[in-house]
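tool_call: predict_structure(chain=1)
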Amino acid sequence: MPKRFVVPASDFSELPRFPGDLELAEALTTAAQQLHDTVTPHSTMRAAVGLAVRLLPGAEHAGISVLERGSGRRTVAWTDELVCTAERSGDGDGDGGGPSPYWDHLWHAPVVHLTDSEAEVGGASLAGLGLRSALALRLRADKRRLTVLTVYARKPDVFDDAATRVGRLFTAHVSLALDSVTVREQLTEAMRTRDLIGQATGILMERLNIDAAEAFDSLVRASQRENVKLRDLARRIVDANNAI
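tool_result:
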């Protein structure tokens, strides 16, 4: 039976020189630029699955999914509907209807390589869809959630050591781009929230003839009393004022 294997982090520290290493570097640089040009985490992941098929040797399909302990897997970006079907059906391959051993292994290692779904435990659903090889690489991980990029191929034993190492290089770029766009999105939202609260405070100052500190305290008390987020309460006030 073909064996599932994991590439330890130490194996990645000393990369061999690839044939055409300059072309690989140029391709990864171009991919990184495209990833960093995206404006939301979702658009970053959509770009990543398309780039994965172009960059990873042998890849024909790709998807990014979020795995949560006790909640199964949710596909968030994909190249085609076959990926969605594969990842949904793969959740029932384990004993007792739980996640298959293939996916479960990702909680313990950053890379999982499925050489032949027809022979591998937990690969029946993939084989039924005509997908024989898969390579899954973690993008993000914490105790309860994983974000994983998986590429698929229709032939067995497609993803060799070189493809795995290219995948590790690529996912490093994807992870950096995701972190960057997430921080930008959070900062943008924080600025919008600050401006919204400032507008609501100004409206209360004018209506109640109070100063800024009193208006803000009034907003906070109302938020606590109604069990509503300060941002949402501020939006209500601003929207109601604009409707007058």
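agent: Residues 201 and 216 are 6 Å apart (CA to CA). Proceeding to next step.
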